[in-house]
């Protein structure tokens, strides 16, 4: 469909993920939890999308500066999860809120 958003999803970093799951399972068993459920989620659970607006110092390779302001526009800041380089697969709401407060603090410095 023309103009539609398309998600091209591919699992990555699986070796590190498997190591984390293995170590966490060992720790949980040692703590007395005999049953550990560990199912990797697929594309059907693609909540908490992150990483669609790259942050950096160079406008040629990033959309946002280090204060989440768009390089090419003087009055647009992005304070959702799109500047995150990746997702930890946990709800990012508190990190988003903390960053929004950090970005808002910069507004005080910009005000005349």
TrEMBL record:
GO molecular function, one term: oxidoreductase activity, acting on CH-OH group of donors
Protein name: Dehydrogenase
Transmembrane regions listed in the UniProt entry: none
Keywords associated with the record: FAD, Flavoprotein, Oxidoreductase
Record-linked PANTHER family: LONG-CHAIN-ALCOHOL OXIDASE
SUPFAM superfamilies (UniProt xref): FAD/NAD(P)-binding domain
Biological classification of the source: Bacteria, Pseudomonadati, Pseudomonadota, Gammaproteobacteria, Pseudomonadales
Xref: Pfam families: GMC_oxred_C
InterPro entries on file: FAD/NAD-bd_sf (IPR036188), GMC_OxRtase_C (IPR007867)
Membership in a protein family: Belongs to the GMC oxidoreductase family.
Annotated Glucose-methanol-choline oxidoreductase C-terminal domain residues: 42-100
Superkingdom classification of source: Bacteria
């Amino acid at each position: 469909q023309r103009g539609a958003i398309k998600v091209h999803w591919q699992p990555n970093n699986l070796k590190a993920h498997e190591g984390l799951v293995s170590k966490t399972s060992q720790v949980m068993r040692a703590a007395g939890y005999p049953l550990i459920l560990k199912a990797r989620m697929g594309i059907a659970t693609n909540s908490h999308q992150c990483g669609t607006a790259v942050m950096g110092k160079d406008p040629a390779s990033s959309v946002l500066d280090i204060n989440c302001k768009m390089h090419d526009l003087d009055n647009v800041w992005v304070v959702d999860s799109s500047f995150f380089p990746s997702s930890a697969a946990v709800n990012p709401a508190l990190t988003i809120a903390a960053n929004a407060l950090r970005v808002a603090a910069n507004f005080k410095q910009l005000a005349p």
